[in-house]
Amino acid sequence: MPVHISVRLAWHDNGWNGHICNDPRKNAYCIGPHSYPGELIATDRKLEIEEKYAGKHCSEMHAKEGKIPPCCFSVNAFGSDEIRAETAPPEFFRDGTQIKVWPMPAYSVSTWPYEEMYKDEIKRPNGTYDNDKRREEADRFFLALEAKKTLIFYYANYSNPFSENEQNRYVVVGVSRLAKPSLPEDQMLYEGCSDETKRKYANGFV
Questions:
Q1: Which residues on neighbouring strands pair with residue 156, listed in sequence order?
Q2: Is residue 122 part of a domain?
Q3: Considering the entire predicted model, what is its pTM?
Q4: 206 is a domain residue
Q5: Which terminus of the chain has a lower count of CB atoms within 10 Å, N or C?
């Protein structure tokens, strides 16, 4: 039987179509505590710039302003054209590692097997996690996915317009069939990492 996956999206008011929200300032859900990654979006989004390009393709804002929206991991889930995505290295690297920028193909998202990253089997005796084993678990997870067979269930967590304080609801916003699985050689590494960072964090995987 094929393995299926779920992918959390940050809320978007324009269908996750690779465009900036139609009204970025009114989208309070993307910065909610259950969004992905809500805290990062709240910290890094530039509303004044996004409002200039409201409803326009993300590539236009990048070309003219050099800015990539922090919802880039999920905003192109149903977008028909490529966009750019980026992520800054964790602060604890502290070694001059560069921001990672990559092309996000049409109809694509970035995701990670969270449950696999926190299994007891990859804990060291001192309670910390072995990052080499974490990367091995990620490889194993993605290698189990099958092109044309694995289904992707896209959902918004509780930070969505249908949830209320008394009733937290997940919202399934789409289902698709996986066109191309991620292989171990597709996993991205930060550039400019120190030897110590590479040793501690499995060559500095994103």
A1: 171
A2: yes
A3: 0.91
A4: no
A5: N
Q: First vs last Cα of the chain: how many Å apart?
A: 29
Distances 196 to 87, 130, 181, 199 between C-alpha atoms, Å: 20, 15, 31, 5
List phi, psi (to 5°) of 129.
-100, 140
Count of C-beta atoms within a 10 Å radius of residue 52: 15
Q: Is residue 205 part of a domain?
A: no
Q: Is residue 151 part of a domain?
A: yes
CB distance 79 to 19 below 8 Å: yes
The number of distinct structural domains making up the chain is 1
User: Which range of residues forms the domain containing residue 113?
Assistant: 5-200
The string of DSSP codes covering 20-88 is --SSGGG--STTSTTSTTHHHHHHH--HHHHHHTTTSBHHHHHHHH----TTTTTTTTT-SS-EEEEEP
Distance CA 176, CA 25 (A): 29
Q: What is the pLDDT of residues 152-194, one digit of tens each?
A: 999 999 999 999 877 889 999 999 999 988 888 888 999 999 9
Contact indicator for 176, 28 with CB cutoff of 8 Å: no
16 sits in the region (left: phi over 0; alpha: psi -120 to 50; else beta) called left
Q: What is the pLDDT of residues 141-153, one digit of tens each?
A: 999 999 999 999 9
Q: Which two tokens stand for residue 184?
A: 């171990």
Q: Which residues contact 177 (CB under 8 A, 6 or more apart)?
A: 148, 149, 150, 151, 152
- Comparing C-alpha atoms, which of 127, 131, 115 is closest to residue 190? 131
Find the angle CA(9)-CA(65)-CA(43) to the nearest 5 degrees. Answer: 45
